[in-house]
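Notes from hallway chat w/ T.B., transcribed later so I don't forget. T.B. wanted the structure written out for a chain they're using in a teaching module, and asked if we could keep both sequence and structure tokens in one place. Agreed to drop them here.
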Amino acid sequence: MTMQAVSVEAIRRTITVERPVEAAFRLFTEGIDTWWPVGTHSYGGDDVERTVFETRSGGRLYEVQKDGLERDWAEVVAWEPPDRIVLAWKICSPTEVEVRFVAQGNDTRVELEHRGWENVSEERRAQRESYAGGWVQVLGTYESAATAA
């Protein structure tokens, strides 16, 4: 009996922010605690005290809850400032999230791809549509933060 490969399209989202590429990259990574919508996109919701992005290959992306509990979201598997990051997304393991920062004059095009859905269980794969909409919201709050600063 042969196994049939499952092909699942990656989630792709693109926005443009009015910031130079270095500043856009820094806000997305070092400044993640200022814009990530933890109320709706975290383990702890309103109990999240802060979000931490360790800015190096092998670093962690995680939340710290008010009681001190740390919950991992991802591991940084590629760290290429200011052009690209790749995260091994632990919440839907073994998917990956790649974010590219492309200069467009004084602005930056931010391209997000969440891939690897064919590698997860059917139960996790069913969450793909929720993630597709979730990334719209997450990038929306990032875009608002980039515009406000």
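Follow-up for T.B.: The longest strand covers residues 70-80. Might be a good example for the class.
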